[in-house]
What we know:
Low-confidence stretches: 81-85
CATH architecture of the largest domain: 3-Layer(aba) Sandwich
Bound molecules: S-adenosyl-L-homocysteine
CATH class of the largest domain: Alpha Beta
Helix content: 25-40%
Number of strands: 14
Order of helices and strands: EHEHEHEHEHEHEHEHEHEHEHEEHE
Structural class: alpha/beta
CATH topology of the largest domain: Cobalt-precorrin-4 Transmethylase, domain 1
Amino acid sequence: xxxxxxxxxxxxxxxxxxxxxxxxxxxxxxxxxxxxxxxxxxxxxxxxxxxxxxxxxxxxxxxxxxxxxxxxxxxxxxxxxxxxxxxxxxxxxxxxxxxxxxxxxxxxxxxxxxxxxxxxxxxxxxxxxxxxxxxxxxxxxxxxxxxxxxxxxxxxxxxxxxxxxxxxxxxxxxxxxxxxxxxxxxxxxxxxxxxxxxxxxxxxxxxxxxxxxxxxxxxxxxxxxxxxxxxxxxxxxxxxxxxxxxxxxxxxxxxxxxxxxxxxxxxxxxxxxxxxxxxxxxxxxxxxxxxxxxxxxxxxxxxxxxxxxxxxxxxxxxxxxxxxxxxxxxx
Length: 331
Ligand code: SAH
């Protein structure tokens, strides 16, 4: 096997044979790089740019994160610290379900039990994260990160990457499923860009769990053949809206709204204006699966005023459509 190394940076780890290694790499067209004093001493390009890092393990972790090959000729016994600390940790995105700690998957619970660090916000089974903290895991409440949502998301990504680079097993606990309005994909991209292995454990989304615990079936034989999920975090008249409300109003099946408590009245008015029947059943499931769960029935015409009158709030799932006209009595 021959490796084409032309122009490829290769991290040379300091040791008795480092100078020889650097020379051989140069002959093959590679760009040997080193860190701190080592770089200066054996004449290598210094990495990471601008740092004074002298620890081999940090340099190795850096190389691993950036996909840079390593030439490490130190005797095996000297590589102990390097091997242990270059063991990069991992990030597991866990869908925690709607909030009831029993509605997480077995795989999700196992990942929490094994986690060194847990990043959580305020939706989903936060109690489980606190249990893990009680047995010694580090718990980071990312809902408390100040500044804008964007800055907060960047900080979450940074924290995940930082902790995993230290060799830790990081669980990013999310409400519901990570890929339903959960920014899970962005978090995966951040990990991948940093060379951190990442896994996803799906979760029970509030979109289906909310109605289910309330006794509402989102599909009914003979009633509907379609089911649509919409985020209502921006009102229909917003220039930021990506939803085709006219098309939605023309549909006959079940419509599930999340992040929509504040804009529910405006959404209902828009659907009616675009032709959906004002008498269409609409049910609000607040705090689904949690203490304080409330199920409140209305129609499209009365949805906004009902939410206001009853003081319904976040988090809530709203089900609109004929299917919402059937609420099972659950014992
Ligand atoms: N990834 C999550 C959704 C995140 S968006 C999931 O799959 O469930 C947050 C929205 O989810 C909330 O605004 C609310 O509409 C809904 N939600 C989450 N948990 C809920 C709960 N326990 N009860 C009702 N709605 C919930």
